[in-house]
């Protein structure tokens, strides 16, 4: 497991078990050995045909682990509770989950349910997110916050005011100064006394990629001048008592507690100033940004890693707020945070299959190929060839490489001019490969073809160079003998993973067993992408019309397999994904069937068989199907 740094990024949830498979420890350090879940067993259960007791799902597969989600939530709460208790802080912590990190129904419902004992709430940044949060919080703790962030129009604000009428603990956070007039007017029109928050633009700047929205020139929030104008206006409207929350967001993936302390201290000063100006301040909402150690280095020296744990994060926050408030003799506020990445990243694993790998052909040369070199080369190419042979005879390796390059370039030019045949060009390629091999300059990195779309399932890798731990989920008791990059199914040169968390441009991988699993031969080779539970599902697109993966929700159970699949969602079919782009698969099918009747009869084809094949293609997922799972589709096109 050290090859893949699993102990670094995986602890306390992921490790390698005695069978050499990746195992999940659903309760972190509190997991007992018999409670560990073998990921390969989940994949088998999910993908085996229904006739053999499986669920018949097609890969790729997201394995959702609600126990891990619960553990993350409870760990966050207990880190703040401990810091509050040990520092004598005189209020409490009450977090919210920003639904934009993963809006999946089960994720949000789980968070509301698991967080209910400690009043955990939700944050929304758009109208549909607000609708979602309102619906889910009806089942939650009545004191849980519903924080409304993001740019707002009258409809958004009315919806938030209605949420307050429905006795949801809603706070409208002003993201722009212009929103205030709407809040004042609409709350009067709807006869609701709103609770208002304000997002402040801090001067503290997080310099990494995720900090581009922070600092004075950041995209969001109110400047000092605007904050003062808002206070004045609220006072004039006799609504200063409605201003109760100060919000800010330093940026995602905050690298160090030093930066965190800086930002929180600045914000706590603003909070105390608002108290001085007469607002009815109760809550400091520190935004998100608690980081994840994707590369397991705990160094904090790149955007992939952070140099603190949950406990240090919480204690820095509590300490910074307490120090400022004590100095200003201000009552300690409720501390709210909007951690997203830190809550949901660990809870899901994306599993996909490597279906084939480019083979490394050991260079060799047959007598016929040698003859092509002797007889087929043009005069100028033959000079390079002779130079190459002389250099090889003298043992001058650098010169060999140079002449091989020149020979190849010359022959490619001749081929383009139509003066050289394909056989001669292939013989030259073979000779150059032999020279490289003899001199030890062979590029042994292989390409593993994976049944996945990176644009759909790992969009941050493509979009912002974010790296995630990727590991084979089995055969980890065997030393990998190959180095490879991963190439996806899309017709796009960006659809490959060639950078990994260890800083290298290839991944240690195992030789595939037998032929491609697509033709029904050979063993399967499954890889897992870990820590991708935040953002990836929401950001993924439909490039090449690949759809989202199948999903299983898996809970620890004390039964024979130590797990139970509690929910199954097959990935969208080709028909589903065509509908996303406004096509009408039903009509398309009818048109194609009609055409089969028209032309198939002429050719004496089995028209019924063609129609069935077409229907099945609409029903199946867009991903490659292994020979045994070709007929998995269900339902109507
Ligand atoms: N709150 C706000 C306002 C944000 O903009 C973000 C993310 O950008 C978050 C919370 C969540 O941040 P993270 O996932 O880094 O905790």
TrEMBL record:
InterPro entries: Ala_racemase/Decarboxylase_C (IPR009006), Arg_decrbxlase (IPR002985), De-COase2_CS (IPR022657), De-COase2_N (IPR022644), De-COase2_pyr-phos_BS (IPR022653), Orn/DAP/Arg_de-COase (IPR000183), PLP-binding_barrel (IPR029066). Its cofactor is Mg(2+); pyridoxal 5'-phosphate. It is an enzyme of class 4 (lyase). CDD domains: PLPDE_III_ADC (cd06830). The modification N6-(pyridoxal phosphate)lysine is found at residue 100. The keyword Aminoacyl-tRNA synthetase does not apply. The active site is at residue 491. Belongs to the Orn/Lys/Arg decarboxylase class-II family. SpeA subfamily. This is Arginine decarboxylase. It comes from Cucurbita maxima.
């Amino acid at each position: 497991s050290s090859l893949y740094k699993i102990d670094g990024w995986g602890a306390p949830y992921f490790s390698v078990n005695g069978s050499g498979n990746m195992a999940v420890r659903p309760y972190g350090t509190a997991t007992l050995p018999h409670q560990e879940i073998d990921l390969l067993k989940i994949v088998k259960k999910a993908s085996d045909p229904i006739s053999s007791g499986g669920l018949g799902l097609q890969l790729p597969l997201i394995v959702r682990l609600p126990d891990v989600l619960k553990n993350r939530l409870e760990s966050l709460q207990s880190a703040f509770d401990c810091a509050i208790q040990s520092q004598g802080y005189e209020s409490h912590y009450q977090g919210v989950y920003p639904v934009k990190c993963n809006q999946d129904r089960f994720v949000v419902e789980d968070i509301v349910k698991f967080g209910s004992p400690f009043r955990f709430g939700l944050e929304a940044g758009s109208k549909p997110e607000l609708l979602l949060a309102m619906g889910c919080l009806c089942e939650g703790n009545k004191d849980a916050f519903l924080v409304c962030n993001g740019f707002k129009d009258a409809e958004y604000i009315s919806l938030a005011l209605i949420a307050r009428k429905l006795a949801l603990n809603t706070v409208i956070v002003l993201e722009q100064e212009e929103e205030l007039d709407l809040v004042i007017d609409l709350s009067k029109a709807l006869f609701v006394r709103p609770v208002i928050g304000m997002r402040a633009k801090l001067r503290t700047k997080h310099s990494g990629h995720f900090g581009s929205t922070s600092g004075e020139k950041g995209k969001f929030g109110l400047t000092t001048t605007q904050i003062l104008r808002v206070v004045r206006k609220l006072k004039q409207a006799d609504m200063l008592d409605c201003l109760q929350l100060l919000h800010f967001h330093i940026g995602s993936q905050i690298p160090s507690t030093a930066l965190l302390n800086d930002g929180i201290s600045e914000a706590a000063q603003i909070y105390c100033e608002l108290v001085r100006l007469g607002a009815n301040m109760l809550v400091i909402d520190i935004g998100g940004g608690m980081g994840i150690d994707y590369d397991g280095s705990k160094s904090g020296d790149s955007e992939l890693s952070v140099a603190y744990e949950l406990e240090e994060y919480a204690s820095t926050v509590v300490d910074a707020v307490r120090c400022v408030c004590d100095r200003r003799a201000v009552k300690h506020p409720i501390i709210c945070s909007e951690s997203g990445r830190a809550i949901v990243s660990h809870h899901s694993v994306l599993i996909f299959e490597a279906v084939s790998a480019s083979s490394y052909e050991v260079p060799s040369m047959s007598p016929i190929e040698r003859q092509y070199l002797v007889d087929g080369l043009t005069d100028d190419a033959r000079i390079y060839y002779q130079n190459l042979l002389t250099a090889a005879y003298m043992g001058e390796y650098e010169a060999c490489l140079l002449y091989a390059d020149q020979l190849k370039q010359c022959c490619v030019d001749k081929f383009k001019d139509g003066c050289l045949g394909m056989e001669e060009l292939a013989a030259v390629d073979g000779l150059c490969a032999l020279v490289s091999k003899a001199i030890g300059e062979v590029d042994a990195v292989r390409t593993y073809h994976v049944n996945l779309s990176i644009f759909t399932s790992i969009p941050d890798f493509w979009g912002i160079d974010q790296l995630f731990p990727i590991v084979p989920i089995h055969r980890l008791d065997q030393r990998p003998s190959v180095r490879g990059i991963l190439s996806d199914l899309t017709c796009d040169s960006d659809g490959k993973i060639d950078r990994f968390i260890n800083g290298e441009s290839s991944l240690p991988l195992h030789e595939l067993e037998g032929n491609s699993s697509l033709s029904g031969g050979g063993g399967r080779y499954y890889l897992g992408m870990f820590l991708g539970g935040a953002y990836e599902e929401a950001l993924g697109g439909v490039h090449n019309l690949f759809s989202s993966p199948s999903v299983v929700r898996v809970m620890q159970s004390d039964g024979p397999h130590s797990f139970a699949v509690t929910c199954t969602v097959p990935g969208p079919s080709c028909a589903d994904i065509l509908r996303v782009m406004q096509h009408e698969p039903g009509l398309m099918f009818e048109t194609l069937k009609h055409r089969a009747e028209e032309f198939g009869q002429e050719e004496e084809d089995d028209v019924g068989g063609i129609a069935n094949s077409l229907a099945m293609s609409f029903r199946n997922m867009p991903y490659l199907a292994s020979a045994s799972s070709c007929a998995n589709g269900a339902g109507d096109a």
